[in-house]
Amino acid sequence: MVKKLNNYFQRLGKAFMLPIALISIAGIFLGIGSAFSNPNVIVKMPFLGNSILQMVFQFSKTVTGAIFGNLPVLFAIALAIGLAKDETAVAGFSGFVGYLVLNTTINFVLTSNKMIVKADLMRQAGQGMTLGIQTLELGVFGGIIVGMIAGALHNKFYTIKLPDYIGFFGGTRFVPIITTVVFSALGLAMPIVWPPISGAIQAVGYGIANLSYFGTFLFGFLERLLIPFGLHHILNAMFRFTPVGGEAIIGGKSIAGALNIYFAQLASPDTVSFSTEATRFLAQGKIPVMMFGLPAAAYAMFKTAKPENKRGVKGVLLAGALASLVTGITEPLEFSFLFVAPVLYVVHAVLSGLSFMLNHLLGVAIGNTQGGIIDLVVFGMMQPHTKWIITVLIGIAYALIYYFSFKFIIEKMNLKTPGREEDVTYEEKEESEKDDMESKAFEIIKYLGGKENIESVNNCITRLRVIIKDMSLVDETGFRKTGAKGVIKPSNTDIQVIYGPSVSQVKMAVVKALKKL
After folding, report:
1. Rounded (10°) CA dihedral 262, 267, 271, 277
2. Which domains are seen in the chain, by residue range?
């Protein structure tokens, strides 16, 4: 049971990446459009007042605003796709059908019981509009639940066989049919069961808010600790898109979730300053760690490497440091020391929590999700009253803390960080990484135990996620020869190989290679 739950949450964490990737890019365009259409910025840079430029910025805000205004349905579709074992297009369609049917049924119940309220009273009554339907304000949480249920229904019924006389409705065609039935029933019950669920979620949010700065520290600490298990996406989604991350009234609408609040403020022309109660769970806590701390840690590992290995390890550490600095993707670097020196990772997690707490304590207001230089510039420097300079000063201090603490601990405990191992020849590894992608894919399949041992292949931002039949057939040490940064085995059938931001190319190559075998 525990293993099944662990596997499920692994898949759920991966499923979150599709909408989150879109949100990250859309947020950047929204941030640029909002900054360059801000009257105070136009006063300082008059050329931005050009009517054509302003039309472009307004267009950008309109398109991205449509994305953020429809996040629940996007999550319903994306999670259904991400959780589906096969026939993912059908799962996505069913996710949309489920979301539509659920809210239409809720509207029917509210209308039949004369519970529909006027527009100016919707917020107080816990109602809202989605896809033109007045319904309960389920928010992104509702979309997540729909996606999870639709994905489960899909996996259970997409291969179903019906009697010959109704066989046309079997298989994948049955999935949206059963989805309609299930969500019709759920919609009838939702007006009764949702208020206590919503109240419980809000209570969790209030509880965390009452922890104040310690709650912020705890979030940052746990977010790092969950990365090795691939469950940090679930923690982030809970704070970013549900009342756990806070609630606010913006433009007369009730907004729940830290990221939702931030982007709503970003899009609002009335925003003078951003809510630090929302941004305390967002990019500002990551910037000192990702832009300053981890690159300094990489330099410490380089300095402590054996002289004969420094040339070989330089490229590995530099690539990880640059990924962290520019994009906020930290796993390639974190996994270079996570398994060989877990004490360093605990130090890293504590420092991450402190970074979130310090930024909150000092009133910094930088949003978005990644924490790299793009977020600092677009959501810090380009936005009003963010106190971004404080984050930079914390970052400079963090560079020193990370460098000297990592260097001291590595040398004091003789940790086998990159370049200090006894049995690794970096020259051989460099030669392996020069091989073409197809050859690498065949090697990966071999180390996974062969084609017959592989059930499914997927990826997230940095990890190749593979479901296998027999873990004893896997050659875990071989993956390093293919450029892997590390390996995680959440269960006896689930293996994750960390390749970094280029993992999508690795996944495609492996899938193509499997078809040739």
Report:
1. -10
2. 279-413 (no CATH), 426-516 (3.30.1360.60)
